[in-house]
Design goal:
15 helices, about 35% helix, Serine Threonine Protein Phosphatase 5, Tetratricopeptide repeat, mainly alpha, globular
Length: about 550
Amino acid sequence: MNKRIKFIILLSGISLMSFSCSSDFLETASTSSVDQAQMFETTSSAMMAVNGIHRLMYLPGSSAAQCGYGTFMLWMDMMGEDLVYTKGNAQWQSQAKWTLHRNTTSSHNKFLYKFFYSIISNANMILDNIDNANGLQEEKDYIKGQALTYRAFAHFSLVQLWGERYYPGQNNTQDGIVIKLDNSLEPLPRSSVEDVYTVINDDLDNAIELLEKVNIKRNSITHINIHVARAIKARVLLTQGKWMEAAQMAQLVVENSGASLQADTYAFKQGRMCDATNKEWIWGKIGQPTLETGTLTNFFSFISNTNVSYNKNTPRAIYNLLYNRISSTDVRKQVWLPDAPLMDRKLIAYPPAGNIFKWMSQKYIVDYPDNTSSLYLGNVYTADLPYIRLPEMILIMAEGYARAGSDQLAAQALYRLAAVRDPQYMLSTNTGEALIDEIMFQRRIELWGEGFRFLDLKRLNMNLDRGPAPRPGYNQGGSANGWKSGQNPKNLDPLASNYNMYDDQGLGEENRFKAANSIEWQFVFPQSEIDYNPLCKQNPI
């Protein structure tokens, strides 16, 4: 590859914005850059390249709704049934209605595709050069382990969206994605889903081997260590239906990461979900107010009901039929407000002049307003964001053991989490499918808004069912049970709180239900990718 490829230097780290398989593969936009050779003179300078990928995870794109990995997380929940889009609005409405990911010319679809290949490209640059850097072998191994993990993480994210689902126990010769193990500009065909997962697992296994033997401790929750690599491996194994292996890998993380469950995680007024000092965190990003300054270019702009963005008019809520299943003694029940329109405004975190809707979320607190006045206390736009938390690993343990037939181990794993969230929770006596259903319910509640629901539905080959459709006369105008102070509420069928998904723009029933065998579960490739790489076969449209 061209040795004159430039790295982009931004502040104290770098963001490397070269993209795979497109005409703008080598595009950069920097006023300050260094040659690749200079970047890899020493392990210290090479670590800057790793830091660049860390920063790429949260740096905003060129337009609204482009916020690094946060875009992926939001999209995955917007396409599910548990996160409710309370009112018709421009941003994210197309994602929620399953239209944007099927648009070959969508800039947002293209952004997400390029985002992951940019991670792969920069990981490849690191892997191609790190062995020649001056420094200790342990430092090289630490850098290499992180780069391998990132490459696996990006390939895994891509194949879940653009590839067909993985069928456990089958040969999985169906089309996956283009595998990039170097930065050659030569067009490449899509590999099979099985081959993609083989590469993902090989990278993770090599990363785990390297990171396991180094004694270098990361200096930030944003960096990758052995526990992050194992956690991603557990996700991969779960997606492949390797139930016992997934459970055992997750258990290694649970028992060795040093993370612990925190009773105050869901004390929403404290904002503990968005605090990197929370001991439940295994990997995440620390909010950067100086970089994430826009109201439309960071994760919290589109999910935090306390953010002063357009989101104030469209609060995010939970599917009421899911909420109703939560035990009254479960601390998580306070995170969503089924009676918000009737509550004392001082008890609700929402921005000045913001709307209040039934079942609105209080999970992601960015800036708690003083609702006795018209002012925010801090006018903050962003916060810390977890990518991997301990509860997910416990839930993978529980699900893996349950689907592998080890009901007792599964129930014990589930108890570790559920008993912290609900002091009245008793060790489950369920077995078989009943136990699996209980675990999946806990997963939906615990990981709500963290980017898992679409992926869970797809990996399990389940239908998307957003509940009963509104009755005639209800949900007029696509808005319901929400109003600004002093206004009267509109009507809503109480059995269908997913009103956001329906008839706002004439999409109606087709947007309520998606069959598991539908081609719509696959993202389409950006047309720019197909034009540049004719060997990359387009998904059915």
